Here is the input.
Amino acid sequence: MKGQIQKALSGFYYVAHKNKLYQTRGRGNFRKKGEKIYVGDWVEFESENEREGMILSIYPRNNSLIRPAVANITLGVVVMSVVEPAFSSNLLDRFLVTLEFANIRPLIVLTKLDLVEDDTVFQAWKKIYETIGYHVILTTEDDTELAELKEEFHEELVVFMGQSGAGKSTLLNRLNIHLDLSTGEISESLGRGKHTTRHVELHEVAKGLVADTPGFSAIEFLEIEKTDLPKQFPEFVARENECKFRECSHTHEPHCAIKQAVETGEIAKERYDNYLQFLSEIENKRPVYSKNKRKSSE
Here is the structure.
């Protein structure tokens, strides 16, 4: 039988097939081969009843994220707070780069707008990202914006990601009152939220499947190479053919269209500054070696 994994918990995988959920385990050879099973995976499995099943194989993935461990994602909702915790364009761009690299369509949601007296700054941020081509939704405690958000979920596999304490679980509870996901308080000493989501699970929301996932205060670019990074900024890609050099890094080269666009204000300086920081992190990251690679070299 073919089904999709909708929850992974305590070594069990819950597979959806023809409106039923089967509790299964993975075959031992998955571990031997180093293959990991992700929520969102399409799998071949066998089961005589809904409590005792076995996953036989995993179908090829369209994409996947390691953190959170979800596969075959079609929409990534980046939830950022404007206050409590404070808005960070750097963190937002980290999430966007991660989604772009995984070929996942991003959607930006800014929360807690009702907690600021003047939203001029955030309207400006909204314009910056919409000019790039991203869809941005500003939300308050009023549910009037939720209809716009729900329209994006139809037949999508959606991952929620963003700041800890930005209100991801709260937002999902508002989208589907039957979820009753636990929410955390903001840690005043840390200035960020406590992690409340303990496992990854797909929930039915607005005719789509949504994974509620933990928020992170930092993202490392472990798989992205420095030549890949410029391709994850859509406004760079739109102008890259105007650069003098084909593999322009947009840092020190003369006649760089991206640097010129930053000077004229066509590209936001904050975005370019974040790009430079990300590039530096990638150039200085330590190489990652697997156990198999180490053994083969010994």
Remarks:
- The longest strand covers residues 2-9.
- Residues 184-197, 289-298 have pLDDT under 50 and may be disordered.
- The chain has three domains: 2-60, 70-211, 229-283.
